[in-house]
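Lest this sound abstract, we think one record worth quoting, the chain in one-letter code, the fold tokenised, each line plainly labelled:

>
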Amino acid sequence: MNLFVKQLSTTTTTTTMLTLLLWTARISWSCATSTSGMTTRGLRVNKCNRNPQLKQCQQQCGCECDEYWNVKSSKLCKDVCDKINNESPIDVLPWCTNYNVIDACDGKFSDKWKGKWKNSMIEAVMDVTYMKAYGRNFTLNFFTDTNRSVDDELLPLALVIHGGGFNSGSKNNCKIIEDSLEVASRGYRTIAINYPMCGAYWSHVDKEFPVPEFGTVQGSGWYAWDADKPLYPPALGLQDEQCKWGGAHPGAHPDQYRQAAEVANLAGRYAMEFAHNKAQEWGIDVDSTICHGTSAGAITCYEMVLFDTTIRYRLNVSGIPSSIPELDDLKVDVAAGRAGALSFPMGRNVTQDTVDTMSPHAAVYNLHGVDDDVVPIEGARFFMNVLAEYDVPHYLNEVEGQGHSLEDWQFDVSHPERLNEMFAFIDDYLPPNKPLCDKISKKKECKNTDGCTYVTKPKKVGECWNRKQKTYPKYDCPVLSDNKGECLGLRNNKDKKMCKFKKVANPNLGCQKEKSKFFSKMNEIKK
């Protein structure tokens, strides 16, 4: 068998390789490091000692007691963590000595990966600390295909970001591990990250009132990113009551949710920086980066493509670090997500200025269930319209009859084209495969450059724009449109026209990139 799982030492920064099946011990932040005095009363010690592979025993071993996410769906872990004073189950529970992530996740993988990781060439380095924020350490898992030697080949970097409404979730979720295995098997050095969620930084604010300015009201609003100590002691479920719902839930404060993706974006950039610093050791091509996630993870990926750290919604309220040049130089080239969308609060819109800071290779793929009642399909369609306005390559695959959870649908082994479609889109746009055609001024040079075409017509195109404001999200006017009737037919709830129409010079003349091969392939499939 070829898989090795590496473990980060809790006392040094050195990683050591464990043989085959050992699962990494969680880094515990508890002040007490001794397990003396701990009790496992009520945890069926004898039963689990006799048969450690019992489902409930394995679930206990997988509990992450230093986390703070929503405990409504993890009562078992809450009970376990309470009984062992939030120490690591790996360290405390005797039946967890041989706990390993392969066996724990194997039964939860789809048929595509079930029983295959241990026999694959994918190697994992688990629980590597990449940053400290809000008084807590945040970690990542690194996955790589050992057939692609780091000494011989630099591969693009891939971030895999978990979902969970910005209040829950983990990089150690088996679905996220399966995502990471798949991405790594496709030729990417892959990092799956944990990032700060609501419980790390939020104190209660009545949602009928605005969030106070940062640092002005103790115990209300945002905690300091650079705090030395955590807002709550690291323990399962310790967080503000408003954090026990997903960010889009009516119980959450709306302004907190609007900025949650900024926090995740910043964490993602620190993870990129960390990975770049290990580029030689891990075999990473620092000039090519993709991001893959589901729900809140997809939203984070889209944020990372669109906005650097200079873009902040109400910075005076959140205190989130901004304008960090070394992080702003890091670019995500292609984001490919499931069930993601973006909303744009006033003052934090996509503009030509923000587009100019993006990777010149930027492109976005989104897989979305038409029946999604968590992130409605309308939000994804709106997001695609925004990308279209600024000529950012994009593709929305709308899946009829599917809701928010699309992992099983996408990983269905009887339909390999579902995953292949996403990776075909990524391959089509990831540098260095995409030439910067708009930088070429001469017609002959353009025609002789693969991937470029010289456009001479039409000389003018229709422009449909908001009568009072040109930027989103005031009203959804289809900016480049030759359909005058459709443009002028857009009205508000008082039946007033919201858009203007006029002919303007075609901004897409001259040397332009050829139509994507991905879309040609998709058109062939549809035929």
Q: What stands out?
A: The longest helix spans residues 254-277. Residues 6-39, 470-475 have pLDDT under 50 and may be disordered. DSSP finds 19 helices and 16 strands in the chain. Residues 437-526 form one domain.
